[in-house]
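From the methods appendix. Each design record in this collection lists the tokenized structure first, followed by the designed amino acid sequence. Records were kept in a plain field format so they could be parsed without special tools. The example shown here is representative of the layout used throughout.

RECORD:
FOLD TOKENS (315 positions):
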């Protein structure tokens, strides 16, 4: 190769490197943070949704089960979609707001709401903002969602005449549940499954899980950009901080084989909860998505025992 050809090849390589660098910076600054927070993005929408968590209750019947679709205005004017399922027995012991994980929706709780109705509990399965049939584009990991829960409780109290309201959240829904409990003392009790304690930390963990390595300054940059794009403070997406305000009864649940959200985070949340009425359930061999299936009847009996204890306090 002559000198002229070498110079030409070097120029081409430099231009390709410059193009690659500019494209990489563009993706890092504008696109990758949206993978974290933007639920409505059509490209992000191609990412596989969370599967509905298995719930196996024999011979569930729809007889006498009354359901009602709700549309509730959030604090910032977006419409939240929810499904109210009423107790199917003569007595009603309370109402439980059900909160799903990220990129899931309220339908994951259809069988659970039937189960609760047959045990004497109303339930309200909520599509979190930007999920399911609710409006919105961005998930804010509890920062805005906890305020949404406050408006849901306002609606249930004034429009449906419901009281003794609790919360049951999974994964992201668990993080929202903890923040909501620390934000609104009208929530009388909580069941919190498989959730994180700090937004920044879990983004770093997920980056390591999918990329095979972690670099905290980079993941922090992505978190800050996600917060800027979605207009929320990432430092406020901190269930651990809100646990310090929780004095209500709470049941914290985590699988010890969870490779998405470490069980240590569940234990940290539990330790920070100020309530004297709290319990931690470790589901042996359960991962992030099969706590119900692995825990089985034994787990649901413990949950029902917890709910019945709250029922007695309401009577």
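DESIGN:
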């Amino acid at each position: 190769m002559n000198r002229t050809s070498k110079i030409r090849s070097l120029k081409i390589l430099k231009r390709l490197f410059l193009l690659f660098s500019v494209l990489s910076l563009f993706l890092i600054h504008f696109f990758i943070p949206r993978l974290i927070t933007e639920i409505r993005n059509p490209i992000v929408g191609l990412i596989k949704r969370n599967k509905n968590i298995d719930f196996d209750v024999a011979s569930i019947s729809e007889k006498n089960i009354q359901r009602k679709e709700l549309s509730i205005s959030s604090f910032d004017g977006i419409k939240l979609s929810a499904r109210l399922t009423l107790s199917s027995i003569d007595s009603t012991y309370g109402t439980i707001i059900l909160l799903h994980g990220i990129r899931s929706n309220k339908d994951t709780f259809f069988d659970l709401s039937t189960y609760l109705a047959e045990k004497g509990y109303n339930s309200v399965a909520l599509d979190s903002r930007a999920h399911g049939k609710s409006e919105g584009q961005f998930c804010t990991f509890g920062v805005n969602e906890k305020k949404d829960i406050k408006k849901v409780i306002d609606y249930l109290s004034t429009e449906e005449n419901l009281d003794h309201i609790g919360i049951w959240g999974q994964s992201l829904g668990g993080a929202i549940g903890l923040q909501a409990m620390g934000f609104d003392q009208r929530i009388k009790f909580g069941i919190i499954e498989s959730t994180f304690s700090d937004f920044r930390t879990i983004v770093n963990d997920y980056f390591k899980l999918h990329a095979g390595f972690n670099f905290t300054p980079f993941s922090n940059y992505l978190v800050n950009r996600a917060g800027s794009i979605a207009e929320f403070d990432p430092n406020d997406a901190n269930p651990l901080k809100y646990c310090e305000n929780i004095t209500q009864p709470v049941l914290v649940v985590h699988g010890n084989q969870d490779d998405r959200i470490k069980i240590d985070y569940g234990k940290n949340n539990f330790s920070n909860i100020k309530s004297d009425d709290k319990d931690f359930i470790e589901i042996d061999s359960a991962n992030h998505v099969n706590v119900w299936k692995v825990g089985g009847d034994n787990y649901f009996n413990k949950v029902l025992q917890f709910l019945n204890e709250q029922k007695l306090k309401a009577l």
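APPENDIX NOTE: Residues 48-61 have pLDDT under 50 and may be disordered.
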